[in-house]
Amino acid sequence: DAKTTQPTSMDCAEGRAANLPCNHSTISGNEYVYWYRQIHSQGPQYIIHGLKNNETNEMASLIITEDRKSSTLILPHATLRDTAVYYCIVRVDGGSQGNLIFGKGTKLSVKP
Amino acid sequence: DVKVTQSSRYLVKRTGEKVFLECVQDMDHENMFWYRQDPGLGLRLIYFSYDVKMKEKGDIPEGYSVSREKKERFSLILESASTNQTSMYLCASSISGTGNEKLFFGSGTQLSVL
Q1: Cα separation of A24 and A35, whole Å?
Q2: pLDDT for B49-80, tens place per residue?
Q3: How many A/B residue pairs have CB atoms within 8 Å?
Q4: Identity of the residue in B48, B102, B106 whose CB atom sits nearest the CB atom of A98
Q5: Does the pLDDT value for residue A98 go beyond 80?
Q6: pLDDT of residue A97
Q7: Does residue B99 come out as left (phi exceeding 0), alpha (psi in the -120 to 50 range) or beta?
């Protein structure tokens, strides 16, 4: 599975959009982009995933560039409860799911 | 919502003790996983299971064993606990199939081995 690069930390004002970038320049054509987050002292939580097209659900939007070498997770109206570490992962769909490599992620701090 | 329940939130054991960490999921998921999470090392896979009575080694199985006698329950066993097994242990489950493979995690068990 391809590696990802994320900023170590980011700040966001409460109520504003949080845009979290992820670089995955070695992504293969059959690899999906997954996002999870981990709130302090809890287990990781699935947010969203996509292959080529942009995706949106009740939690967030995922924007994948046309060349698929990078993506952005968007939390449209960040709240204090969105403070967490956000992990971007790329993996082959149908591959061994247990081998998700979480990396260090981006620590998002939402401030009042 | 899927619920993955880990039996203990905090656990303190002594070196050499046999330790059982229990995990139960309520959504009839085929796949279950045990990870440990340590500062600076991220999540590392210990063992996983794709079916009852079936188990596969992950990246760091040494010192651990698992048991899956029922579909909903996946137990992690530390045969003889050591101080380097002090860690946060996370259980996860998922449904089999492609295109919709989301892992659902429990809240974790913080194990301290003294």
Answers
A1: 13
A2: 988 999 999 889 999 999 999 999 999 999 99
A3: 51
A4: B48
A5: no
A6: 55
A7: left
